[in-house]
Specification:
Blueprint lengths: L2 H22 L9 E6 L7 H17 L3 E6 L5 H10 L5 E5 H9 L7 H7 L7 H4 L12 E13 H6 L11 H15 L12 H11 L6 E3 L5 E3 L4 H17 L10 H9 L5 E5 L3 H8 L6 E5 L9 E10 L5 H20 L1 H13 L14 H10 L12 H6 L5 E2 L6 H17 L5 H16 L3
Parallel strand pairs: 1-2, 9-10
Antiparallel strand pairs: 3-9, 4-7, 4-8, 4-9, 5-6
Length: 454
């Protein structure tokens, strides 16, 4: 029996089990169906995205007539997520970053899905490093890794051309990024380069920039404790770089309060020449922010120094432990159908790709595989005929990413430490006299207090 056959059979057996669970519990809807509220897109997503979702929803409900799927607009934001979770206002199925998963696991705020994942038959197909993100201290699994990314340098081809730069030869060093940023700013009046600064994303990108220069903001002591090492040469170099672009070159524009959503909006509108973010952001740029695909370019983040690496991450599909058995069973069905089977099953992969293409959605956005390499490569062959992203405009990333050393995000108090670093990035961009060493020294003290639980 082939691996593919085993996966399909296991999935079929699991569906029978889960259907029995649904039938045993009343679950949600007055129609006798189990109502399942699922996360969809951030507010502002275009109509085509919802058309594609509606088609997929209809396909799922046709196969699962006892489940009523209700899409809910959703965007994870560090400062507001905990409040939403405590208030019970999140969908039944939602996604969280790898970095938030550990805290949620420690607080007992995620549903145990070990038995369901094993029943579906693909636990062993996950990349073990990525599976660790959903593994609790008890060895059980509390979510389904659904996508991963490596950091990349995103750039606007139109602004490159306006500045006399070759969009097919993007920068490969931080010095070249600086030169291109100034050329774009001088020629167009737009921000040649920009950095996220708020809602924990400033800290996230500062860590990525530090890692790209050989820095590490945290030392794992090997006994369950961590030592803060924010004030290291890589972090200092990253902040001094921003300081130079801002105060010497004046190439960062004038908006210094940007997070993931707002920097994507500005970039899609043609107001930013370059920025760093996850390699998978192209889908959101087109779907949610109206980016013209012809203007988009992606290459790898420049690395500097012997210990430099590329920061990676991703997110997981999860459920709250407070939902009832019927909703949990329906949620696992949805996660398997909507997120996982397109990675594991040829028919599901093609069906998903067809639905996306029919609604002008992206197929083929660069990601890192959450599954083992062989399974990932096979899934890419299944959808090759449907790929509609401008791969030639992303060649710098595809050609260079596997030569870069991947580095995981820091594990201890991750989002809280990212939040600590936001004001430092803001200070460097708004105060010409910002004392980087003093800011980082204080950040180390504050971060260590978080790591020590004080």
């Amino acid at each position: 029996m082939t691996m593919k056959s085993r996966k399909v059979i296991a999935a079929g057996a699991a569906i029978v089990t889960l259907a029995a669970l649904v039938g045993c519990t009343a679950g949600g809807s007055g129609s006798g169906k189990t109502e399942l509220r699922v996360a969809t897109f951030p507010p502002g997503a275009d109509a085509a995205a919802y058309e594609a979702f509606a088609e997929q929803e209809a396909q799922f409900e046709a196969e699962n007539p006892d489940i009523d799927v209700v899409g809910v607009e959703y965007e994870w934001k560090g400062p507001t997520f905990a409040v939403q979770l405590a208030a019970g206002s999140l969908p039944d199925v939602f996604t969280v970053p790898f970095t938030d998963a550990k805290t949620l696991l420690e607080n007992g705020q995620l549903m145990d899905v070990t038995a369901e994942m094993d029943a579906l038959g693909y636990t062993d197909s996950f990349n073990p490093i990525i599976l660790d993100a959903v593994t609790g201290a008890d060895g059980k699994y509390y979510g389904f890794p659904r996508q991963a990314y490596a950091m990349g340098l995103h750039y606007n081809r139109d602004l490159f051309e306006a500045a006399g730069l070759d969009p097919d030869a993007p920068p490969t060093t931080w010095d070249e990024v600086r030169e291109a940023a100034k050329a774009i700013s001088d020629a167009t009046g737009k921000a040649g380069f920009m950095e996220m600064t708020m809602n924990n994303t400033g800290g996230w990108q500062l860590v990525a920039a530090s890692v790209a220069r050989g820095g590490s903001i945290q030392q794992d002591d090997g006994d369950g404790t961590y030592t803060s090492t924010i004030n290291n040469p890589g972090t200092v170099a990253a902040l001094e770089y921003l300081q130079a672009l801002r105060w010497e070159d004046d190439s960062l524009g004038s908006n210094f309060l940007l997070d993931w959503g707002s920097i994507n909006q500005e970039f899609a509108a043609g107001n930013i020449g370059m920025y760093t973010s996850g390699s998978d952001v192209y889908t959101a740029l087109v779907r949610d922010f109206g980016l013209n695909p012809d203007s988009y370019g992606l290459t790898v983040m420049p690395l500097e120094g012997d210990d430099a690496g590329v920061l990676g991450g991703g997110d997981i599909a999860v459920m709250s432990p407070s939902i009832d058995a019927a909703t949990k069973a329906a949620g696992v069905k949805w996660i398997d159908w909507y997120y996982m089977q397109k990675l594991l099953n040829e028919d599901a992969a093609k069906r998903d790709a067809e639905a996306l293409v029919a609604s002008d959605q992206a197929v083929g956005t660069p990601v890192l595989p959450v599954l083992d390499q062989a399974t990932y490569e096979e899934s890419q062959q299944w959808i090759a005929e449907y790929v509609n992203v401008p791969l030639d405009q992303m060649s710098g990333f595809f050609d260079g990413i596997f030569a870069q050393t991947p580095v995981g995000e820091p594990k201890g108090s991750t989002q809280a430490i990212y939040a600590l670093l936001d004001p430092i990035v803001q200070a460097v961009l708004t105060d010409p006299n910002a004392d980087i060493d003093a800011l980082l020294t204080q950040a180390d003290k504050d971060a260590q207090a978080l790591l020590d639980g004080n």
